[in-house]
Amino acid sequence: MGIAAVKIKIMPTSPDVNLKELEEKAKTIIEEKAGKNCNFEEEPIAFGLKAIIVLFAWPEEQELENLEESLKKIENVNSVQVADIRRAFG
User: Fold this and answer.
1) CA distances (Å), 55 to each of 16, 48, 73, 75, 83, in order?
2) Is the pLDDT of residue 38 over 90?
3) Which residues contact 74 (CB under 8 A, 6 or more apart)?
4) Closest CA relative to residue 32, chosen from 54, 58, 51
5) Which helix (DSSP H) or strand (DSSP E) does residue 3 occupy?
6) Residue 88: predicted pLDDT
7) What domains appear along the chain, each with residue ranges and CATH number?
8) Orientation of helix 19-32 relative to helix 65-72, angle to 10°
9) pLDDT grade for 11, boundaries at 50, 70 and 90
């Protein structure tokens, strides 16, 4: 099977949340579940609130639902949304 390029948007609960801490927790979970090469970006939303955009490689044969549920359980995460997924290699 091939590798998919996945883009996930993580929304924190408030502008006061430490985004670097959220990124570290998300990276740990993604890598435990077989994701590789995590890259993070911050996307301004409104009134100081910023979303975390995570880009990473994911094995196509694996479902993303388990990963989404694990990311939603991180403290101070309001929502998790798969923004884009496409075949990268294979």
Assistant:
1) 23, 22, 19, 21, 10
2) yes
3) 10, 22, 25, 26, 29
4) 58
5) strand 3-12
6) 80
7) 3-89 (3.30.70.60)
8) 150
9) very high
Q: Output the CA torsion 68→84→89→63 (10° steps).
A: 30
Going by pLDDT thresholds of 50, 70 and 90, the confidence category of residue 90 is: low
* Residue located via tokens 């993303």: 64
Mean pLDDT, residues 1-30? 96
CA distance 14 to 89: 37
What is the residue-wise DSSP string for 10-53?
Answer: EEESSTTS-HHHHHHHHHHHHHHTT-EEEEEEEEEEETTEEEEE
pLDDT tens per residue across span 60-80: 999 999 999 999 999 999 999
